[in-house]
Amino acid sequence: MALVLVLTGVAVVATVVMIVRDESPPGDPYFLLLGVLLVVLLVQAVVGLVALAGTEADVDAPTFVAYLLTAVLVVPVGAALALVERSRWGSVVLLVALLTVAAMQVRLDSLWTGAGA
Amino acid sequence: MPELSTGPGRVLVALYGVLGIAATGRSAVQLLGQPEEAPLAYSLSLLAAVLYLVATASLLRSTPAARRVGLVACSVEAVGVVAVGVLSYAASDLFPDKTVWSHFGQGYGYLPLVLPFLGLAWLRRTSPSAEG
Question: Domain segments of chain A: what residues?
Fold first, then answer.
């Protein structure tokens, strides 16, 4: 879903700005953005599972499901680590988490389209 | 004693955690899916996965014993990624399927190549015997 990549991209930019300005911990608007991203990832997981169940294409199912579910977990774990570490390094953790989501999203999309689904 | 898991250490925990999950996932899919296809590659994937999880746990625990375990884990990772990296180019028939360490961890943004050295540097920086 392109929406995930767009939201992740916006969050990455916001995180880099935070790191450069040494603003930590992140403010409420930032966490709102992460929350929206998390909801979109949850919706994607449900939609993805339903689509997988309904498709005829030869999608690598275990990998696809693992990526769908792990992508949902990465954001809250990253946010939790960042809240414990209230310094610039906490924001770097968020950056790691967001880049992970982006990488997983690209893999998810290629797993899906690569199988001709 | 300096905490291993605070400050930059938390970034290392995050990176190691991600890699640990990625490597575990890959080796689980490979070993459960088609174990006979590339036994060496898949066993190495599993070894890498375990090492990354051990390194993550050592960083979180921060005890003197955990530091030693972390040191061993990071060292083996460093040797592993360089050895498999070289072999995957020089003797590619050994690895019919990819491992986390193939081509110096290319498929994982070269994280497997960078992380063990970051881990070793961080262990050294925070060592109780070192200044600062």
Answer: 2-114
In a domain, B60, yes or no: yes
B78 in a structural domain: yes
Q: Residue B84: which domain range?
A: 8-125
The three-state secondary structure class of A29 is helix
Query: Is any Cβ of chain B less than 8 angstroms from the Cβ of A100?
Result: yes
Per-residue pLDDT of chain B (132 residues; tens, 9 = 90+): 457 888 889 999 999 999 998 888 888 888 888 878 878 888 888 999 999 999 999 988 888 999 999 999 999 999 999 999 999 888 888 877 778 888 898 888 899 999 999 999 999 988 876 544
Cα–Cα dist B104/B110, whole Å: 6
Is B80 inside a domain boundary?
yes
**A87/B contact by beta carbon, under 8 A:** yes
Kindly identify which residue of chain B lies nearest to residue A70, measuring between CA atoms. B21
Q: How many domains does chain B have?
A: 1
Domain-located, residue B131: no
Do residues A96 and B18 touch, judged by C-beta distance below 8 A? yes
Contact B78, B117 (CB under 8 A): yes
